[in-house]
Design a protein that fits this description.
This protein is mainly β and about 375 residues long. The chain has one domain: 7 Propeller (Methylamine Dehydrogenase, Chain H). The protein is built from no helices and 34 strands.
Length: about 375
């Protein structure tokens, strides 16, 4: 999902693997949501345009005059042949009409997926894309090769669909980038890694160098030159996951993820109450660790999305059979929106819009979703 002051944009995929179709839809006049969660403007949203694309949908981002969609597939799309199974392609569409402006293959000799996207942060209409790949990855004229099972990557793409840089992060084990965020010349990335990984020569220390378990990392780079400014890692004895990263209004870098058992973050040990809890952690501009908090109960809980809304971040995910949706500021929960129903609910996507945010909710068939606002 993505949004701006006038419209919301969604990517919905249907069909079976190998024959998937993704519909990108722009709706105008979407209802506004007040700070207490109550619907304010109840005008009926109208479809401004709709574009159908071959392949499975991924992240969607609004930047400048474009909506950029990440698509995964194994067949040629719009004359662009994709390597790997799956291959990845970024497609730039005109935000006003849905017309395809450019297609950029980001594919590999083995496989490649795009898992994160954000505006480039300079106001010029470019985007930053993150994901993972195996083999040799190609994006425009840029090429990188994985150091093992699979590595993460970050690419900067201009408003014209040209690749400014392509960097890899990883080592001999499985590694991936799951979140990208930018503000001015600052680029924050976050993901998972295993022992032996590095980012542009900066080592990523694992919690246990002898373990194959996945830990989390966060780093800040220069968004134009792709030079590392600082890196930090967190994790425990079991596999941990990263849902995304954001830069809030105070310039803090905030990561959301899922932690199991005990997770070590910034010199502190946090223990999950159940099988897993959602993790939210802050770092300041210089990379110093700030607050960290776990959200959850006795069941299985976790984070799937994060978005910065002013000085706060909104984190979405799952909590038992219901959806987790909460606003946080500096380690404190300031508002929650519990979502219940007869089936299972989960926050699938979050995106900031002027004055608030929009949330995409996945729910089991036949479930009735009830959203309650609390202060």
């Amino acid at each position: 999902m993505a949004g701006d002051a006038d419209a919301t944009y969604t990517a919905v995929t249907s069909g079976e693997a190998g024959a998937e179709r993704t519909v990108i839809e722009a709706r105008r006049g979407a209802p506004e949501v007040g700070t207490n969660g109550a619907a304010g403007d109840r005008r009926r949203a109208t479809v401004a345009w709709r574009a159908e694309l071959d392949g499975g949908g991924g992240p969607l981002v609004r930047s400048g005059a474009l909506v950029v969609a990440a698509i995964a597939g194994t067949v040629a799309a719009g004359g662009v042949s994709l390597r790997g199974s799956p291959g990845a392609i970024a497609i730039g569409l005109d935000a006003a009409t849905g017309t395809v402006r450019w297609r950029l293959a980001i594919d590999s000799s083995e496989w490649a997926v795009i898992t994160a996207a954000c505006p480039a942060g300079d106001g010029a209409g470019g985007v930053l894309l993150g994901g993972s790949f195996g083999g040799t990855l190609r994006a425009g004229a840029r090429v990188v090769s994985s150091g093992g099972v699979g590595d993460g990557f970050v690419a900067r793409v201009s408003a014209a669909g040209e690749v400014g840089f392509l960097i890899r992060v990883g080592g001999p084990g499985p590694d991936a980038v799951h979140g990208v965020a930018a503000a001015g010349d600052r680029l924050a990335i976050a993901g998972t890694f295993s022992a032996g990984a590095d980012l542009l020569g900066a080592a990523l220390p694992a919690f246990d160098p002898q373990s194959l378990a996945a830990d989390g990392f966060v780093a800040e780079l220069d968004a134009r030159a792709a030079r590392p400014r600082w890196t930090a890692t967190f994790g425990g004895k079991l596999d941990d996951a990263v849902a995304g990263v954001a830069i809030d209004g105070r310039g803090r870098v905030v990561v959301a993820g899922t932690a199991r058992d005990v997770v070590h973050v910034g010199g502190r040990d946090l223990r999950a109450q159940g099988a897993a809890d959602a993790l939210v952690a802050w770092w300041d501009r210089g990379g110093a660790a700030g607050p960290a908090i776990l959200l959850g109960g006795a069941g299985l809980d976790g984070a799937t999305a994060i978005a910065a809304v002013g000085d706060r971040v909104v984190v979405g995910g799952f909590s038992g059979d219901g959806a987790l949706l909460a606003a946080l500021d500096g380690g404190a929960v300031v508002q929650t929106w519990p979502a219940d129903g007869a089936g299972r609910e989960e926050i699938a996507a979050l995106a900031p819009v002027p004055g608030g945010f929009i949330a995409g909710v996945a729910r089991a068939a036949g479930a009735r979703l009830v959203v309650r606002a609390t202060r």
